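Listing S7. Sequence submitted for prediction.
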Amino acid sequence: MNGGQIHAAAIFAAELLPGSECSYPFGPEHQVFKVADKMFLLLTELRGEKIITLKCQQEQGELHRAIYDSIHPGYHMNKRHWISVHPGEKITDGLVEQLVNDSWRLVLNGVPKYKHPRF
């Protein structure tokens, strides 16, 4: 997938999640999706290349980086808990959807239940 396709797949997946809200807190070039006021997805460009950055369990992030050449430690984020997905042949819509869903779930699990969106 190229960067535009990755962005489109990530946006599509994020917009389907309950309580997902889009904003631009870092400027118009950085699209952010949050749940319960916590970021779970960042869409941006790095050196002219569209990428996404997502929260990920440390072990899962290490596994993804070992399997996929175009998954790296999170750009401008905690390198143990965030990953960045760059364009690559092995990146698929299904993988992007899974990563977005996992990130949303991980972030939501870290906030008190009274702040959870109503499903």
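Caption to Listing S7: primary sequence and predicted structure tokens for the chain studied. The chain has a mean pLDDT of 94. Strands lie at 21-23, 31-35, 38-46, 49-55, 71-73, 82-85.
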